[in-house]
Structure formats: structure tokens, C-alpha cells
Here is the input.
Amino acid sequence: MTSIIDRAERFGENLYIDTRGNCEKPVAFTEAVINGLAQGGGLYVPQEVPSMSVEEIVALAKLPYAQRAAAVYKAFNIDLADEKIDELMARSYGSNFDDAAICPITTLADGTHVLELWHGPTSAFKDMALQCLPQFFSASAAELRERGKLDHEFLIMVATSGDTGKAALEGFKDADGVRIGVLFPDGGVSDIQRKQMVTTTGANVQVWGVRGNFDDCQTGVKRVFSDVDFAEKLMAEHKVSLSSANSINWGRLLPQIVYYMSAYAELVEAGKVEAGQSIDVCVPTGNFGNILAAWYAKKIGTPIDKLLCASNENRVLTDFINTGSYDISDRPFTLTPSPSMDILVSSNLERQLFELTGRNANAIAGWMRDLNEKRAFRVDPETFAKVREHFVADSVDNAECLAVIKRVLDEQGYLLDPHTAVAYEVAQRLRGENPVVVASTAHWAKFGDNVYRALHDMAPGEALPADVAALTGCQLNELIARETGRDDIPAGLANLDVMEVRFADVIDNGVEDIEAAAEAFLTR
Ligand SMILES: *Cc1c(COP(=O)(O)O)cnc(C)c1O
Here is the structure.
């Protein structure tokens, strides 16, 4: 077995510590990726966040996107060889995206810079990380295998309410040493989302519908993860351990830092921002991964001033940033037109607070205990001042969200998805003198029903007219495209009606049912 120190000598020495101070010793990047969650429930962060000068950041614009990503990962000193990183990034960010720029910026007539993060295979921003994480995952597993630290393969299990499942399937399909099974609530995802998942190609994938709602589905999967006997059985009989691909994995966060640095470089290159001039960034926020990545981009040296945190009606983060109190003890969970931001517990906030307290693991462990036991915590005044130094926040209600989609199409000729609409509106409300970059997290055609409601002045949740309700998701998108005179439906969403359905199984949500299905998949 090779020690961490040997690897550090070979590659660099940026090891990973955890936010609650429970890990006995720091681990290498490869191990942080494979482990996902740190021992004791904390999250991994790198011991050192690199610094880059404005000149170095601006120079990224001269490189293709894949090389920009590689340059940032090398600055983080991850324990994979430089040539390996180059190779992995060429695979992550290439023709799998429908725009050579990977995440191009569209500047609207009103000056807002829209950073389009949805040009990947599933048309949502999760591709930016999930085209990359599986490359890291397979390479990390290979690296650890070579060092005698690993002798088994992985079964990734994901419960999804829509976007994440498909992005994970696309990322992990045909990855080495990994199989991936995705469970979605039967009848609980949109027609487009279901078809995206059940038509996924690749030899190592499996998709199940689960009877019940998303909560039932997620609870079932969580129980499987905590079933020690099942874990032992999988290892003994299949040489496989369970793993997840969720957004607390550092290997998912790191790729998101790149596009904020890249966007700054491009704006300077295009003459829209002067080198060194500060910009603000507005992010439609759920689990806090995307906006945290923007904070890391700032920490590295990107001239970002304010981070604008945009919430929908589930405004726990906006309330936190405005009061210092995170309180879900008496907070209802609301359904909105932007479901990927519908959250109560925002996991990556833990990393942000760790950083803003000067890496005080005791404070974090205490707050996370409070959250668990009292469903609330309040940060100290000093930490709250730090939060206010970087963040401002506001929320947009469901009716406003739909109105914004209509108004921006009428006034700027640009069609927003509901998540981006929330961020666009918050940016207009909170912006000052700085140029603003709005993170656009999904293509409108992923959320055609609410886009239709917006364009037809319907209320949120109002039933679609019978003839419209009878359309498939693809047909509805074609109708919207015709009505608005556009032809920008992404290829991956256009032909779902005619693609072969590979997975039609619907299973019960009991732990035995899910475990039996997982084993059947492993022996398939
Ligand atoms: C996941 C997601 C978000 C929220 O991102 P976080 O990193 O969880 O804050 C916003 N919009 C869309 C479309 C998403 O899929």
C-alpha cells in the first residue's frame, strides 16, 4: 500500500480535510472523489485554494474550454498526472456539447450577460459537472487500484426528481468499473424527463420507475445505502460497493468553479468588461453548489464583487442571507415552476460556512447538529457579517417567475427557463453598477409546460387546455417553437418520442424491492 505522502510527492500536496473535523487524516483528491461524503458526515474541501492573477485568469480565454478546466484542476494540484487531466477534460468537454464554446455567453439588449450552462447532452447545467465527475471517478478508482487501495467496482444508485438522474446517466454511461441505476417516482416526473431517462443508451445503465412520490423513492434508496448486510452481500457476491453521485461530491463542485473564471475571461476578451473590473454573479440556487463554486472562483482571484443568491418560493437561503438564521422548523415545502430549486436543506451551504468562519469545524459541527435536532441554526454576528460581505439575496414567487419569462421574451427576444427567470429577476432587483452575469441553468424546452403557461398568461399550476395537455412533451415544445418563431430545441430533446424505450420496469419502494432490483441489474 502506498501512503498519501508518496502520492503527494509525486503529484503535489493539496489534500482534503472535512468540514466537521471528524476525519483522522486528510485524503487525496482521488479518495475524496471515491468517498463522496467524508467520515462522520462532513464534506471535503481542499487544504489549499490556489490563487491566480487577473492576467492568468484572462489568459484562459485563449484556450479551448477543456484546457481551461485542465488548467484550473492543475492549479488545485489534484493527484492525477497532468497528461491524464488533459485527456479526461478533452473527453468531458467536446462534441458532447452542442456549442464549441461549451457554455457561451449571450448578452441581452439590457446588458445582462447570460451564461448558458445547458449546452450539454441533457440540456441542464448539471451536465457541466456530470460530464466531468465520472471521468474523475473512473480515473480515481484506477489510480487507487494501482496503489493497492481498491479492489472492487461500484454501483451508483441515484434517486431523482428529474434533472440529476438523466445527467448522471449520460455522464456515467459506459464509464469503466462503474454501473449506474437511477430511480424516479413513477408518474412524478415530466414526460420529457421520463423519456430522457428510459431511452438512455449504454451497457452499464438501468432505470426504474418507483411506485410512490419522490420522497418515497429517496427514502427507499437511503435505506438501501444504510443496509450493512446488503453492502456485505454486494461485496462478497459481486465485488461491488454502493456509491452516489450527488452534489456534495467535491468532484462535482470543482468543474463548476471553472465556468465562472472562464466567463470572466471571455467577457474581457470580448471587450465587455475591462481586465480587473469587478462583476456580480447571480445564481438560481437550490443545494448551493453552483453559487459556492462562484465564491471559490472569487477566492481564487476572479474579480467578482457580489454573489446574488436567487430563490423561488422555497426561500430558506434568501432568509438566511438576510437574517443569519437558517430555519426550517416551521417552513412548508412549496411546489414551484422551478423544481430543481425546491429545497429545504441546502447541503453545500455547510462548505460555504466552513470557509467563511475561517474553517472552524467546531462551529460547523454545532450548527449542523442544531439543524438536525432543532431544524434551525443561527450563525454568530462575525460570520453573518462575512456572509453579508459576499452575498445578497432575494426571492421570486411563482406568478412573478412566469411573468418574467413572458416579459423577457417580449422585450429582449430571449426565452428563459423558469430557473433562469428567477435569477434574471433577482439580478434586476439587486444589481448595482457592476456588469452582471446570470447563470442560466436549463434550456427552456426542459420545462415546456410552464413556459407555455407563461407565454399564455396562465396562472402557475393552472390546468393546460385539453388539446395542449394531450400533447407529448416534444410536441408541446414544437408548438412553443412555432408560436414564438424559433428553432432552437436541442437535439437531445427533439426526438425523444421516437427513441427506443429501454427501461419499462416499475418497482415498489420498499428496501427489499429496490435491493432485489439492484441485484438483478448486477447479474443482468
Ligand atoms: C440543480 C439545479 C439548480 C440548483 O443548483 P444548486 O447547485 O443545487 O444550487 C438550478 N437550476 C437547475 C435547472 C438545476 O438543475
Q: What stands out?
A: The pocket of pyridoxal-5'-phosphate is lined by residues 124-126, 163, 247, 284-290, 340-341, 419, 441-442 (CB under 6 Å). The CA atoms of residues 173 and 202 lie 5 Å apart. The chain has 24 helices and 15 strands.
